[in-house]
Specification:
By secondary structure, the protein is an alpha+beta fold. It has a single domain, classed as Ubiquitin Conjugating Enzyme (Roll), CATH 3.10.110. It has two helices and five strands; from the N terminus they run H-E-E-E-E-E-H. It is globular.
Length: 122
């Protein structure tokens, strides 16, 4: 149910949804702000059974936007990993857990989190 709710909410926002692998959903996304504003990417999310109680762990992007750094660290340049979706993808470990409970727990709120990530890349 969680994945279908996530997909329904993406479609209600006007996104065409693809499923690049089991447990993942992807959309074509035009980056709205920041250093990469106007660039089109494919953005994917690993949606767990706990949505909407918990958000996806972080976005996956194709193509790579920043260098893969692995390990820990913080936004914007830390904790960028190779994605299980393949070599053209990268995973940004950017949990939204800290204040997710203070939102309405919707895809719209999660996408606002993603927008903020892009707004804060120098």
């Amino acid at each position: 149910m969680a994945k279908s709710d996530f997909i329904d909410q993406l479609q209600a926002l006007g996104y065409a949804v693809q499923e690049p692998a089991t447990g993942f959903v992807a959309i074509s996304y035009e980056i709205p702000v920041g250093k990469f504003a106007g660039q089109n990417v494919t953005m994917s999310f690993q949606v767990g059974d706990s949505f909407p109680m918990e958000p996806p762990p972080g976005p996956h992007f194709n193509p790579h936007l920043l260098p893969v750094t692995g390990g820990g660290g913080s936004h914007p340049f830390g904790a960028i990993h190779n994605s299980p979706l393949g070599t053209t993808w990268q995973y940004w470990s950017r949990p939204f857990a800290g204040h997710w409970n203070q939102t309405d727990r919707t895809v719209r709120s999660y996408l606002a989190h993603i927008r903020n990530l892009f707004a804060t890349i120098p």
